[in-house]
Specification:
This protein is mainly alpha-helical. It has a two-stranded antiparallel ribbon. β1 and β2 form a beta hairpin. The longest helix has 31 residues. The chain is globular and about 50 Å long. It starts with a helix and ends with a helix. The relative contact order is 0.14. About 19% of the residues have low confidence.
């Protein structure tokens, strides 16, 4: 597992790069960073920056977005070992939430990979995760309303995953923000369509509560964007985007639990 992980995180030559934070910011700033380009991930790589405070949302996303794709690569070499690790890590994460995050950070430390911004890295890797990696966030019901919700949730997360690549280009990023706003509205519309299929008032209330939480974090995301254009703090945008992904996942899990 350690060798496979290191191949993903540090298997390629590190490249120095300056990330320029521009736009209507008080002042421009730059940070030295490097990229690694693991096989199968294309440009969705771990990019290092000075890491801010760890956030709980990152710990919830490490297993589906980082670990499972690694295990999928391992499966090409050893199916039994991959499936055994997948089952063990999934059970361990359920019992001790955040365990896989601690595992990853331990491996990063052992591999002497410094200054990794996990917020940016996980956000990037979201765009490379497959339906198989994110199976618990997909609905199995065949009705159009459920399949539409699958599409809208995946679309929003895919757009959010582009933020690290596009945030430094003001014109492009403003267009991306418009896409995000549209994707949020479409997701909420899809949730409303699904609510009618949910049996019982308690189930409906549970989904409505998830929707309220999603709206709350959508508003926080909007506020964070305004602050970014004033202060140029990209990491805050990454964190806020991850919370939106997490809240999207929570909607999908709740709908799945109440309908399947």
């Amino acid at each position: 597992m350690f060798q496979c992980f290191v191949e993903v995180v540090a298997g390629s030559d590190s490249l120095s790069k300056q990330t320029q934070l521009s736009g209507r910011c008080g002042s421009s700033s730059s940070r030295s960073c490097f990229e690694v380009l693991p096989e199968g991930f294309g440009r969705a790589a771990v990019r290092a920056m000075t890491m801010g405070d760890d956030t709980p949302v990152v710990t919830s996303l490490v297993l589906p977005i980082l670990i499972r794709p690694i295990l999928s690569q391992l499966e090409r070499r050893d199916v039994v070992a991959s499936q055994t690790l997948r089952a063990a890590l999934t059970k361990a994460e359920q019992t001790h939430p955040g365990l896989t995050y601690e595992l990853v950070m331990g491996i990063i430390k052992k591999g002497d990979i410094r200054d990794v911004n996990m917020n940016e890295s996980i956000l990037r890797l979201q765009g490379a995760a497959t339906d198989t990696d994110l199976i618990e966030y997909r609905l199995n019901r065949t009705e159009d309303a459920f399949q539409e919700l699958n599409k809208k949730s995946a679309s929003l997360k895919r757009i959010l995953s582009r933020i690290p690549d596009e945030i430094t280009d003001r014109k492009t990023f403003l267009e991306t923000i418009k896409e995000i706003a549209s994707a949020i509205k479409k997701l909420l519309d899809a949730v409303n369509e699904v609510v009618g299929f949910i049996p019982g008032s308690q189930g409906k209330q549970a989904v409505e509560q998830r929707k309220k939480e999603f709206v709350k974090y959508s508003k926080k995301f909007s506020t964070t964007l305004k602050e970014y254009f004033k202060e140029g703090e990209a990491n805050a945008v990454f964190v806020s985007a991850l919370y939106l992904i997490h809240q999207t996942n929570q909607i999908m899990i709740t709908v799945k639990n109440k309908c399947e």
